[in-house]
TrEMBL record:
Organism taxonomic ancestry: Eukaryota, Fungi, Dikarya, Ascomycota, Pezizomycotina
Listed Pfam families: NAD_binding_10 (PF13460)
Stretches assigned to the NAD(P)-binding domain: 7-227
Originating species: Penicillium angulare
Protein name: NAD(P)-binding domain-containing protein
Family per record: Belongs to the avfA family.
InterPro entries tied to this protein: NAD(P)-bd_dom, NAD(P)-bd_dom_sf
Gene3D superfamilies: NAD(P)-binding Rossmann-like Domain
């Protein structure tokens, strides 16, 4: 498989890259700064797969056609969105990258005849309603982040996530798409830390609420989700008690989807009236 990894110099992406290469997959890592190229290429040494770096600024992706040009250059099977403005450049950059560029890549990826998976790394608070399984104190913390700490980021991610969900729902309802399945995977970690991986997580519907999780564990889970043909939907993620492999298996077998209390029909109607 060939993976287009957007935001290749992010901390999660740096952990993910060698895992994907260990599967003997090809990875094209997209980064804005050419100074990061050698650091990323070093991750490919001794790995089974092939690693390339593409220098491109996602802030310059102003349309689905711009995204399509990158996709056509790389010709990936899977796309991973691990990108974000990271608070740099102010609200305008956040909207340009976390929202608009993400939506453009989603549009181009769903339209592609070769891409069969899109994994979006989002965050656990990217939803409109408090889910029934989330404690009040956890939701209060999320709302604080959405309204006071990172309101532009939260709004941008929600827009991109709901657009992805609407695209996936619309596609599933189209009989013509039955012959070409597409996995839309929305991985939604809690508070990110730089601690070493525990390889113990709670995945899918997280009774602990927002919790925390290491970036390395996020990468490990993302790698395992990409390797399966029976996963799609929203997957909240925090540190837990289950081994990663067991948690992923459980989520797949039980068809867990944390979007279940959100208004998916409303998302489809909003984007495709």
């Amino acid at each position: 498989m060939h993976v287009l990894l957007l935001g290749g110099h992010g901390k999660v992406a740096l952990h993910m890259t060698p895992l994907l290469l260990n599967r003997a997959w090809t990875v094209t890592s997209v980064v804005r700064n050419p100074d990061h190229e050698s650091e990323i290429l070093a991750l490919g040494k001794g790995r089974r797969g092939k690693l390339d770096v593409l220098i491109s600024s996602l802030e310059d992706v102003k349309s689905a056609n711009d995204a399509k040009k990158i996709i056509d250059t790389v010709t990936p099977d899977y796309v991973v969105w691990s990108a974000g403005a990271g608070g740099k450049g102010g609200p305008a950059s956040t909207i340009a990258i976390d929202q608009e560029a993400a939506k453009h890549f989603l549009t181009a990826s769903f339209a592609s005849t070769s891409i069969s998976k899109f994994l979006m790394i989002s965050w656990i608070g990217s939803r409109r309603n408090q889910p029934s399984w989330m404690p009040d104190d956890a939701w209060a913390g999320i709302m604080l982040g959405k309204t006071e700490r990172l309101p532009t980021y939260a709004a941008a991610k929600l827009e991109a996530d709901e657009y992805m969900t609407a695209l996936a729902a619309k596609r599933k309802r189209d009989p013509a798409s039955a012959s070409r399945p597409f996995q839309a995977i929305n991985l939604r970690p809690g508070v990110l830390t730089d601690e070493p991986a525990t390889r113990k997580v709670e995945l899918g519907i997280t009774a602990k609420g927002r919790g925390s999780v290491s970036r390395e564990d996020v990468a490990i889970v993302a790698d395992q989700l990409l390797a399966r043909a029976d996963i799609d939907g929203w997957y909240d993620l925090v540190t837990g008690d289950l081994a990663v492999e067991e948690a992923v298996e459980k989520a797949a077998i039980e068809k867990i989807d944390a979007v279940k209390e959100e208004d998916v029909d409303g998302m489809v109607k909003r984007f495709f009236p």
